[in-house]
Write a structure and sequence with these properties.
CATH architecture of the largest domain in chain B: 3-Layer(aba) Sandwich
Oligomer: heterodimer
CATH class of the largest domain in chain B: Alpha Beta
Strand content of chain B: 25-35%
Structural class of chain A: mainly alpha
Structural class of chain B: alpha/beta
Helix content of chain B: 25-40%
Strand order of the largest sheet of chain B: 6-7-8-3-9-10
Mean pLDDT of chain A: 86
Mean pLDDT of chain B: 88
CATH superfamily of the largest domain in chain B: P-loop containing nucleotide triphosphate hydrolases
Strand order of the largest sheet of chain A: 2-1-3-4
Distance between the termini of chain A: 24 Å
Low-confidence stretches of chain B: 306-313
Largest interface: A-B, 29 and 34 residues
Low-confidence stretches of chain A: none
Radius of gyration of chain B: 23 Å
Distance between the termini of chain B: 20 Å
Number of helices of chain B: 10
Shape of chain B: elongated
Largest sheet of chain B: 6 strands, mixed
Number of domains of chain B: 2
Number of strands of chain B: 14
Chain lengths: 378, 313
């Protein structure tokens, strides 16, 4: 390995990125754009679910019921249709995600039997929202029921039932506001790094093949290792720069609580960048056209990172077979690490498993990449 | 070691296709050898094998004292190569390209400045050091590529069709540079499909369909390889005349050269019968005129021979 040749390659590569508007845009604009789109656009929170209330009774109790629903942040009353047909129409038009029907004799039945039913119909085309909204509705109704019970007991001069009631008092840690943004944004950093790092490097070797400069390059005494390290060095710096930008945006702009050590983050980010660059380089060596290389790099980084890294869909909820596949999705380790460092303040020691996995991935991929380039045309 | 390049039974096959077939070639130090043949004859493949870019399927080659199969890196450090396709970086300036290749060839720091200046001078690019290479015209690009290829002062230079697509005046200037380098002791193998350029070489190697068909100085080849006397005929219907002449008495070979016919006869006396012979076929022709063979004549003559009578070098 000769440092002079390494420097010559790295310098040339830097000049080329600097003069290529497309590469420059990927390096500098893409992170900004992605951060805005993903940071603001992706949210898993279900709030203010549109609710139609078909109040057939219009009694004091029914009004109280409706108020309880509006008082929670979970629902917002969209419409109060006057009849069955209007209910159906509101649902069809998509005005509301749920319809609650309070029957005509609701309060009478409740007073006489101590039991009454409340029908709520959900539009389950959006399964996720429906699941969450059902839970919310049950919560609201549960609170109302408890109130009614104690009121009923007081008016009849008996003790409210206490036996068998377990009072669950949940406290959430690390993301106290249950804000999904705090969960998503650290993952966005992984997406952006994967995208930028692999996209840029996927062009670096294929471009030389396409433009015919490779033949000249491999006729010189430069070694395959010098070529790889020299070519990756500028992209490594760009990757770290982009990562720093994204992580700062996460902490300062999106106000994701940052509780861990900066050193831990830098080290693991550098590791992840190595993996991503290694993949980009490997693709670039194998696929000799720029377009093909960039498409395959996209497929290898974006897709598994968005779907299988736990960025949006929790890994432990996946079927066993898919869970096994995620073990090879290198991004999942970085997503886990960034989240833990941000929200929990975890240290390298706490994170040794994912960190070691990243080290392993980096070593294997760089090794394969280094070995897959041959200074020959055949 | 006096010979700069030695190839012995050098062979390259791609699947069932034999691109280079048992090629023997020896180039002495300081010699300019022109590698001549039509497109697809195997010139580039041979040069790439000699540069260590392609692995020979059979045979061996020694360049600058190093075996291309076993010590390709040592070979690369001692050669300069210009590939057929222009292969400098268009998005880098003249100076940046030179610095880049200087860096790759580990040109000593205290000499890089001088050598860069020499190369710029040689390419005629003084004052345009900071121009992006893609903005240069063909001739300048080629000379700059040559400048990059010799930055490390290699003893052996391989130039693969360096003048293709370059205008005649620039081609002439390019050949002057090649001669200057050879006079400094550099061994040069240069391929071309311009027959006229062969005259610039000390020696030419004619290659066709992967086989070396002849080798020698331009004069030698013209004298030795033709095996007959050459005449030129002008006539009305060149195509019909060509077919008719094949059956003419004393005819060895006939070929079209532009709008004329070149006929190779066993002896000069056969020439007188040609005009009446054509007239009997209804073709009006000029009297045959004896001409000196060009290398093109030699080449045409050689490649139309059956392959197994390869001329020894």
């Amino acid at each position: 390995m000769n440092l002079g040749r390494l420097y010559a390659i790295a310098f040339k590569e830097t000049l080329q990125v600097w003069r290529d508007p497309r590469s420059l845009a990927i390096a500098l604009l893409m992170p900004l754009l992605q951060m805005v789109v993903l940071g603001y656009g992706v949210s898993l929170d279900v709030r203010r679910v549109g609710l139609c209330v078909y109040d057939q009774e219009r009694s004091q109790i029914s009004r109280e019921l409706v108020e309880r629903f509006t008082a929670s942040d979970w629902f917002r009353i969209n419409a109060k249709p006057p009849d069955d047909r209007a209910v159906r129409e509101a649902m069809d038009r998509g005005d509301c995600a749920a319809v609650m029907t309070i029957p005509v004799n609701f309060s009478r039945v409740l007073a006489e039997t101590g039991k009454a039913s409340l029908q709520t119909v959900f539009d389950a085309t959006d399964v996720n929202t429906t699941n969450i909204a059902t839970g919310y509705a049950q919560g609201v109704v549960g609170m109302i029921t408890a109130d009614f019970e104690s009121r009923w007991a007081a008016s009849h001069g008996v003790q409210p039932p206490t036996v068998g009631m377990i009072d669950l008092r949940p406290r959430v840690w690390f993301n106290e506001g249950l804000d999904s943004r705090n969960f998503i944004i650290p993952g966005v950093v992984a997406i952006i790094l994967g995208l930028v790092g692999a996209q840029l490097t996927s062009l670096t070797v294929s471009r030389e093949w396409e433009r015919g400069t490779m033949e000249q390059l491999i006729s010189t005494p430069v070694t395959a290792l010098e070529l790889m390290i020299g070519k990756l060095a500028p992209y490594f710096m760009i990757g770290l720069f982009d990562a720093a930008f994204c992580l700062c945006a996460a902490a300062f702009w999106f106000q994701v609580p940052f509780r861990g050590g900066v050193g831990t983050l830098i080290l693991t980010t550098a590791l992840f960048t190595l993996v991503v660059l290694g993949i980009g380089y490997l693709v670039s060596v194998r696929v000799r056209s720029q377009l093909g290389a960039s498409q395959i790099a996209l497929l290898l980084t974006m897709l598994p990172t968005t779907l299988l890294s736990g960025f949006t869909f929790p890994i432990d909820q996946m079927p066993a077979a898919i869970r096994a596949v995620t073990l090879f999705v290198y991004a999942r380790y970085y997503v886990t690490i960034v989240r833990a460092v941000f929200l929990k303040g975890s240290t390298i020691g706490d994170l040794r498993l994912p960190v070691m996995s990243l080290v392993l991935f980096a070593a294997i991929i760089i090794w394969i990449a280094a070995r897959s380039f041959h200074k020959r045309l055949d | 070691m006096t010979d700069a390049v030695i190839a012995e039974r050098l062979t390259k096959t791609f699947g069932a296709f034999t691109a280079v077939d048992r090629l023997d070639l020896t180039i002495a130090k300081g010699e300019i050898v022109g590698f001549i043949g039509p497109n697809g004859a195997g010139k580039s493949t041979t040069i790439r094998m000699l540069c260590g870019l392609l692995r020979p399927s059979m045979g061996r080659a020694v360049v600058a004292g190093f075996d291309v199969g076993r010590e390709p890196e040592a070979v690369r450090a001692h050669i300069g190569y210009m590939s057929q396709k222009f292969s400098l970086y268009g998005d880098l300036t003249v100076r940046e390209n030179l610095r880049f290749f200087g860096g790759l060839y580990l040109v000593p720091r205290d000499q890089i400045e001088d050598r860069t200046r020499d190369a710029v001078e040689m390419a005629g690019l003084r004052g345009r050091e900071d121009a992006l290479v893609r903005t240069l015209a063909g001739g300048w690009k080629q000379r700059l590529a040559l400048g990059c290829a010799i930055l490390h002062r290699p003893p052996v230079l391989f130039l693969d069709e360096p003048t293709s697509g370059v205008e005649p005046e620039a081609r002439r200037r390019f050949w002057e540079l090649i001669h200057r380098l050879a006079s400094e002791g550099v061994t040069i193998l240069v391929s071309t499909h311009y027959m006229d350029e062969a005259e610039y070489c000390n020696r030419i190697a004619l290659i066709n369909a992967g086989r070396l068909v002849a080798s020698g100085s331009p004069g030698e080849l013209r004298r030795r390889e033709l095996g007959g006397v050459l005449f030129e005929i002008e006539c009305s219907a060149v195509g019909t005349a060509l077919l008719a002449l094949k059956r003419a008495p004393g005819m060895i070979d006939v070929a079209i050269f532009g709008d004329k016919l070149h006929v190779l006869l066993d002896n000069a006396s056969s020439a007188t019968g040609l005009r009446p012979f054509l007239a009997r076929q209804g073709i009006d022709a000029s009297p045959p005129r004896a001409i000196t063979a060009s290398l093109e004549d030699v080449f045409v003559q050689l490649v139309t021979r059956p392959h197994d009578i390869t001329v020894p070098t």
